[in-house]
């Protein structure tokens, strides 16, 4: 089952909790230590795939096994014997990007998607979800509870209660979207300690077809409290409180456990839809994948999964007939839904998809689709962070004046981000205020949101993997409203414009988003501080340099810093940096990049006379102009800014290097990183690739 407990890394794999390091260095990007013989390696990988403590470990092990064998047949055939194992494998396939693996997997996944579910296997339709602990002295703490219906989390539209409350750990915290494993981040429930049979309950307000319940565990203080959730019982009840499903967790994982409550066939087909979309690119079968998914839109058990899978593929890659077919099907579905509430989470996602699809259609079809969706609910805009890029996946969107809006922000990056909607013309004022407040001791507690009247709406500071919905009424007057991330160092690049238009006919054609905005696959671990890491680094780092090289890549360091000439050009060569700084000094600067900024890497902001602004690092200044490198992640030609058009020139106090780069890594992974950096200083003739 997906929630089975875990084990430590086998002795034949490189050490590291909980074996993720070893799995990464077994992949082509790392240089593994002496590899075990194939039979022993296969045994180890099979064991980790079944018993890995973390979900990421199990998925990485499945992928690593196929890589090691150079074939998909043995792994697939073994998983296909058990629905739970096959479900795990289908999730793992979203990590596969090798064409030689993706092509045969594509055909197998398409077969799962094409299989029809038996009529007798009805979906579990539940209203109440309970998490219970049995025993005379138990404490129940939950970081988050997600209830999936049609692939969408519907828990946040319900109401929560629990047996008792302590330490301000209210029941509603489990459905607030905050998955942080740290209790101090104010997102976890907590019952009175050591009480008999504590429980937590969610009322979804009505019966819904349910697929899975995901329990996010408390994981701070190196997992000290994780075992509190051992043996938890999950129950699903109908509207009459009759039990429909009951399952036991067993040993609690360090991150999250997914408990399947729906029929196995529906489970597999839904996951197959997402896997098919992920494999389509590397297998060079995008047109086939789109057609397969579009033809299943009318299947009520698959519709939400189909929409999610289609949104993972940019519209530009779709065959035109598929867009037209889906447009007609979606229009007919929305017309038939006229007069219904259409207010649960996956119905809202469908409205957002309709808004994204409409501009891809011919004018008459686009108008018909917009007319069908308009009465069913507010405008729904979905915005994601783009991994490793300090930008949103949408640079602009439009809303109708005076109409309700639901703005969904999903952080799929490895860094924390927020989304702040501001008054017209106030981007610089809000951004500079956020920059100034970064030095305040309470800035983190205030989530880096400036206390200004120009701040109209704002999400919390979302850690990696988190999601929040902003609900508001659009301003009544047409205007352009900037939106921005106010986390330190982000505002200059991570911003966009919300256009407010007078009526529906003026609505700009929205874009579907950036296809590179795929989840990073890493979850928030801890907001690391100097006190957490510097004592260990004061001694010589004891981690694994090969694993540390992979951490360097996952943390996006090589996008700016070259190593032996390979990598970005924004920052200094890493060998030069580690040669003049100790591990403690280097860690202090990674944790607080603005602690000291070398003159050649200072950012400047140029406020122009026409009301626009330019920001970046000055590459050169000549002929009455300055030339700026505006994008630290690319090597585009510098932008010329005529000084005669500049109204004000300001030196930024924040580094281009963002904060929070280590927040999705464990202590062991961070020690691996610094062991790798030390290896560059100890051996200047070569680096570990």
Polypeptide structure, described:
By secondary structure, the protein is of the alpha+beta class. Helix content is 31%, strand content 19%. The chain has 19 helices and 23 strands. The strands form five sheets. It has a five-stranded antiparallel β-sheet, with no helix packed on it. A five-stranded mixed β-sheet has the order 12-18-17-14-15, covered by helices on one side. Strands 22-21-20-19-23 form a five-stranded antiparallel β-sheet, with no helix packed on it. Mean pLDDT is 80; it is low at 1-19, 27-35 and 508-518.
Counting DSSP H or I runs of 4 or more residues, the number of helices is: 19
Strand order of the largest sheet: 4-5-1-7-8
Strand content: 15-25%
Largest sheet: 5 strands, antiparallel
Structure summary, number of beta strands: 23
Radius of gyration: 26 Å
Structural class of the helices, strands and pairings?
A: alpha+beta
Helix percent reads 25-40%
Per-chain topology:
Elements (H helix, E strand, L loop, with lengths): L19 H6 L12 H14 L3 H15 L3 H8 L2 H10 L6 H16 L9 E9 L11 E6 L2 E2 L5 E4 L36 E12 L1 E5 L3 H4 L9 E5 L5 E6 L7 E5 L3 H20 L2 H9 L8 H9 L8 H17 L8 H13 L5 H11 L5 E8 L4 E2 L3 E5 L3 E7 L9 E3 L4 H11 L17 E4 L8 E7 L5 E6 L10 E7 L28 H9 L6 H10 L19 H7 L2 H9 L11 E6 L4 E10 L2 E5 L9 E4 L3 E6 L15 H16 L7
Parallel strand pairs: 10-13, 12-18
Antiparallel strand pairs: 1-5, 1-7, 2-3, 2-6, 4-5, 6-9, 7-8, 10-11, 13-16, 14-15, 14-17, 17-18, 19-20, 19-23, 20-21, 21-22
Helix pairs in contact: 2-3, 3-5, 4-5, 5-8, 6-8, 8-9, 8-10, 11-13, 12-13, 15-18, 16-19, 17-19
